[in-house]
Amino acid sequence: MRRPPRDGVVLLGLAVIALSIVSAALAPALAPDDPVRNDLLARLTPPAWMDGGSWAHPLGTDTLGRDVVSRLLYGARVSLVVGLSAVVLAGALGVGLGLVSGYYGGRLDDALMRLGDVQLAFPALVLAIAVLAVVGSGLANVVLVLGVTGWVTYARIARGETLSLRHREFVEGARALGARDAAILWRHVLPNVLPSITVVATFSVARTIIAEASLSFLGLGIPPPAPSWGAMLDEGRNYLTTGWWLALFPGLAILVVVLGINVVGDWLRDTLDPRLERGL
Amino acid sequence: MRAFLLRRLVHAVFVVWGVVTVVFFLVRLTGDPAALLVDASATREEVAHARQVLGLDRPLYVQYAEFLTSAPLGDFGLSIRERRPAMRMVLEHFWPATAQLAFAALVLAVVLPIPLGVIAATHRNGVLDHASRLGSLFLQSMPSFWLGLMLILLFAVALGGLLPAYGWGTLSHLILPALTLAAAPLAQNVRLIRSGMLEVLQQDYVRTARAKGLAERGVIYRHALRNAAGPFLTVSGLSLGFMLSGTIVIETVFSWPGMGRLIVQAVPGRDFPVIQAAVFLFAILFVAVNLVVDVLQGLLDPRARVFGDGG
Predict the structure, then answer these.
(1) CB within 8 A of B118, min separation 6: which ones?
(2) In Å, how far is A179's CA from the nearest CA of chain B?
(3) Using one digit for the tens of pLDDT, what is the confidence trace for A164-204?
(4) In chain B, what residues touch A135 (CB-CB under 8 Å)?
(5) A170 to chain B nearest CA, in Å?
(6) pTM
(7) How far apart are CA A55 and CA A52, in angstroms?
(8) Do B141 and A218 touch (CB under 8 A)?
(9) Could you say which DSSP state residue B23 is in?
(10) Quick check: B282 and A131 CB within 8 A?
(11) ipTM over 0.90
């Protein structure tokens, strides 16, 4: 019997995630060069295997002569830090509000859900651009904006699950025994919400990494000279004819990492929460 | 049906009110909207003067009440850079440039998946089935602007200028941006049509239709596809919303003179009247699209009228 190919793919996805975390963490040790050091004499050096390339810069250099590999490694830090912290922020905010909303219901519930409707009326990127235009770009602001604007999905899921759980026997039982609301939510409701939330959060990390890249590509994310994959693509797009590698490799890095996360997300969904619909 | 329409409409009006409120408070996030709504190089006196002219020295509730009446009519003040009504500038960029791009992409992403999805469903595990699965996974894992850059690299650079890389005007200028914008939703919609079809093809009425001797083509297109259309419609609406958002980066990549590019260019110049007007229009288009989709869904499937109240 042939093994189903999915398992191998999931392992590959996990390996990609582990590898990107390790290379982000060990960037200073792994990078062949300082990611922000200019070397104008070596500007636009092609990748090592091409004519004029050198193994001192395996994937070439950019227009300021900075080493592409080093910038990619440090850029992984930005992507992962933004992706993870924004999702944790959005998840904590959304789950918290969703639990309270679903458990207590009433006016608060109405208000929060209507607020969610309004928020969803804005294309996420548009809202992020507008807010960053006011508060200014930078790592912390990008995390804040992507985190705070991401709460609605979590809130809706947590609220829905809470609504269906709050009259179940084990919750009623806990209440009859005198447990406080906070304890009930924390100990009895939250654990039941977590599987769905984990699945959504995994896909969110992938989407947030792309969102950060988009914002940085538009010049609204992480300001230069700090290496971010999106900003590298922005620099590279003006050199498509003379330095194609500048536009290729940062995008490939995003693709590989996000693909890895999405594959693992698919697997998590199938294992943890088969009810969630595929493909949405 | 009338009650359903009314409920949807009230909900949309409520959301528009929320949108206007968010846009109003947006420029007040950092405290002083006057500093944002005038030229960045203005002196302190000029800012003070502008505060008076723009009425920003009045109580907040007065300003808010006025904004509530002026904003829905499209009055967002003058653009700082061009000294012209901000909303008119945004509309000029929306029509025709952004509308063209979004429409072309929507046609690609909604029409093409119908035959492709049917083939993928009827030839399960065939080439197209696998290709759409892989395509959907890959396209959702890459930033659309990077796909755009790669298409430029391929068609405008490597293939010696087969298609233009930048600009606007002719049909050949439209191909790459529209393709870039449509790619991810296209692949996703193929998957959706496919799974919808697979589900419907197992239903009793499909078996009945086959049993009474209908040609397979009739079974698929008249009976099955029609019933697989509901979720597809919702997702098409989502795709359009996603595309509106996507135009921002795609227009930047292809130097497409639309409202996405306008908002990006307005940021470094701190042209807040234009940013406000653009954010407002984006949100309104989004709400309108969702409203139309909901109503269509209600027409198509009476069950949606009860459950689809967005609540």
Answers:
(1) B193, B194, B197, B220, B221, B225
(2) 30
(3) 888 888 888 888 888 888 888 888 888 888 888 999 999 99
(4) 29-30
(5) 27
(6) 0.88
(7) 10
(8) no
(9) H
(10) no
(11) no
